[in-house]
Amino acid sequence: MYRAVQGRFFFKYPVFYSYLTYVLLSSLSGFAIYTLKPAFYPTFYWSLQLVSVTIGYCVIWEIFRQVFHPYPGAARLAGKVLAAILVIVLCKVFLNASLHGRWVAPARNPADLERYLRIVQAALLLTIAWFVTYYVIPLGRNIKGMILGYGLFIGLSVIQLALGAFLGNSFQKIWSHLASVSYSAALVAWCATLWTYQPSESLQGETAFGHDYERLSARTATMLAQLRGNLLRTPRP
Amino acid sequence: MSHLLIYLEIGGSIAFALIWWFVKVQAPRASNPYAVHTSLAEVLEHRPYILTGRIFADDDWQVARASLSRKDQKQFLRDRTIVALMLLDEIRFRAGQIMYLHRTTAREAVELKSSAEMKLAATYASLLVCCVALQIFVRLRGPFAASQIAARLSRAADNLWLGSEAFRARLNSMVAAGADTTNR
Question: Predicted confidence band at B162 (pLDDT cuts at 50, 70, 90)?
Fold first, then answer.
């Protein structure tokens, strides 16, 4: 955060740095609560975690915006797939709620809820990464690092939350250490990749077809069909 | 305990997949093999391979079997296998180039259609599968026996394609009928 302020790119990624600011402030206030009113700490911790997950979704939205901004075609398709993932998740939540009558609390406890929400975040992040690879979208070091750091944090959080939920009290002693491991891994990735401002470069694609998508896709389909036809039709015995 | 293992696996896979992605995803210009030809026109110039049929054709093998010695027949088969594998590699590479250039152009098109993209991706994937299957078969049984599996693959791919087209058409008509009823 210090480097971002110094390099004047704090406001290039406003949501991401707001998230980091939130994590810093919530950790400090959490420490104060833990010292002064330990009994109140669990409720306080899980409330902060749910807010953190919500801001995490905004971070994913910012990553999506930054990655696909110069590529409206890829953005359109990726947006549809991400929306479909969210709709499927919502359908499942409503189905579960109506089957088990749990409209007020969609999960058994806050840890379960956070784990489910983190898995959905991971699905969204992996989908973005897949579209980046498929459409050969050039990414700057900053965005790549954001995806890696947040992905690592999510992956390790899922492991930590699962261990906490299934092993119960015996796991409480190492819980706090694991939590710092997942966040430290993310911080290391972010520090290394966001040390200086390195935005994504926008490459212009082929211009032979301009932006005539219909003509382009028809031509690609014809070329592929010719290759396939040649490969398979001619060798019939 | 099985649920715990599933979640541990999910968490580990997420972290591992993103580390792998971070290491593998490179600047497209520098490392992508399909980016060798930067001009679309250059790729479109390449004509389809009329040679493919010849490589797998049984006639040549019949002539070789009738006129060559046993040793030369073996040499002929070896050479033909190498050429067939190279040709299949080339077709895969050419298909990769076509798709690479399509994707790098289409990503900027506002009017991009998801159905067209999925259709192209499926065609490309089926072409790759056919190429790999043929390569395996050529390695195992030689180029002339591969002509039979190619014919079967062709029929299977055609049937699959016709089936999916029919399903799509039925789906479209159902959607259209639904919209019609709603409008009334």
Answer: low
Residue to substitute from A133, A215, A232, A233, interface B, most B β-carbons within 10 A: A232
The pTM of the full predicted model, rounded to 2 decimals, is: 0.77
Co-location of B8 and B74 in the same domain: no
Say yes or no: B75 and B165 in one domain: yes
For B4-61, write each residue's pLDDT tens digit.
Answer: 888 888 888 888 888 888 888 765 554 455 554 445 445 445 544 455 666 677 777 7
B26 and B79, same structural domain? no
Residue of B13, B90, B103, B112 best to disrupt the A interface, most CBs of A under 10 A: B112
User: What is the residue range of B16's domain?
Assistant: 1-31
Residues B102 and B141 in one domain: yes
- B4-63 residues touching A, CB cutoff 8 A: 4, 7-8, 10-19, 21-22, 24-25, 27-29, 32, 39-41, 44, 48-50, 52-53, 56-58
Give the dihedral of Cα atoms B40, B44, B46, B52; nearest 10 deg.
120
Residue B163's contacts (CB-CB under 8 Å, 6 or more residues apart) are none
Q: How far is the C-alpha of A117 from the C-alpha of A54, rounded, in Å?
A: 9
Q: Do B44 and A219 touch (CB under 8 A)?
A: yes
Q: pLDDT tens for residues B133-146?
A: 888 888 887 777 66
| Chain B: residue whose CA lies nearest to A207 | B105
Structural domain total, chain B: 2
Residue A58 has pLDDT above 80, yes or no: yes
Neighbours of B179 (CB within 10 A): 10
3-state secondary structure (DSSP) of residue A135 = coil
| Strand residue runs (E) in chain A | none
